[in-house]
User: Fold Adenosine 3'-phospho 5'-phosphosulfate transporter 2 from Biomphalaria pfeifferi.
Amino acid sequence: MKMPEDPSGKTAKETIYLWCFDLTNLSHTWQFMVLTSLTFIFYLVYGYMQELIFKLEGFEPFGWYLTLVQFAYYTLFGVAELQVKEDKQRKIPIRMYLLLAFLTVATMGLSNTSVGYLNYPTQVIFKCCKLIPVLIGGILIQGKKFSAIDITACLCMSIGLILFTLADSAVMPNFNTYGVVLISLALCADGAIGNVQEKTLKQYGASNGEMVLYSYSIGFLYILFGLVLSGGLLPAFYFCQEHPVETYGYAVIFSVTGYLGLYIVLTLVKSFGALVAVTVTTCRKAVTIVLSFIFFTKPFTFQYLWSGLVVVLGIYLNLYSKNKNSWDAAMLGFMHKYGLMKRRRTLEPENIV
Assistant:
């Protein structure tokens, strides 16, 4: 993002606000450290609370009810945020929010529900691989052509996922393929929602706060209607009444950290770019997996490690494909700087005697 110039001819700093805190006067390094630290703090707590809730015996079938509670909190946060803004008028048509809400429900509801049937690290690995449905959908629906690097990245992610899942099925006595189906469907919805959100925000010029409020409030109604029709609302409600702290109490922390983490990542993307943001969130997911093995007892095999590294390779091949020119230039500059590549000397015409 190009920064404006001040009257003295120097480039002015880009204004960075994190809620009511002004980070503009901090150095670039300190801004990065603050945003990265907060990303780790909020999302590590988010992941820990999500797994902790599903460790409650008997809670496995109630993932949709947890999503209902989460959407209720997000709606309240969205209302509170909108109250402090001057422009309260809705810019995106309701018909678009009906689609966005459906995709949001599918992404988060299926993802939350899958935790009850999957080893948590497996769920996290699947969530790293959004490129797979995006690439397949682009080929089948839009007839897009992708580079060899993109296809290689997709293959790496696919192979890594298969190997990670096979390792999971070998060491986990309660491995359930239903969980794999749920997280795969969530991944497809997640792959679609990003494109729809980006197109809608650009087309109508709406704020993130507006999109959060309407997507989650309409999504709340979708889930409520679905739970009432399926008969799943009352059993979940009665179960949570018996365990209010382990359900509603933990869900407050789960929802608050998820909501705050979302805004930190958006700020990170805006200030440092998608490459830095993906690097930070990928490292965060790796730490989440490590902490899951530390805090929650589960079998471990080294196949988890190297199959996870294959997925990470796929992620960075995808990033390289999108930033090939800038990465190549940076790599050449690095190699020249540290003498890894000798510069070729060319004789200029005026130097020839």
